[in-house]
Amino acid sequence: MSEPMKIKLDRTMCDGFGVCAKHAPEYFSLDDWGYASLIGDGTVADADRDAVMRALLDCPVHAITELGEHGPLGQRPPAVNAEEAAEPDLTSEDSEAISEFVR
């Protein structure tokens, strides 16, 4: 059995559209001004996964995020070769932009 879906709501990003509460009222409530709050700890039951995913995808300001290692539709991302994932070695000889950058 796969890990349960976990979500997070960033209330600072919420603009009060209410789409999340429309799609998944068991997980999102709206305050007096229409801003969303997450109900519970963000763990989503398998039976509610589709409704919560619809709320996540329909949020116009992307205030809802899915936590964990799985991708946007509950699938794990493909494994990446370690050589491909390595950071490039950027020295000042390789890039003028980096050589002129001052921190």
From TrEMBL:
Required co-factors: [3Fe-4S] cluster
Acidic residues biased stretches: 84-97
Region of interest called Disordered, as start-end residue ranges on this chain: 68-103
Pfam families on file: Fer4_15
GO terms assigned for molecular function: 3 iron, 4 sulfur cluster binding; metal ion binding
Record key words, sorted: 3Fe-4S, Electron transport, Iron, Iron-sulfur, Metal-binding, Transport
UniProt-recorded name of the protein: Ferredoxin
InterPro entries: Fe-S_cluster_ET
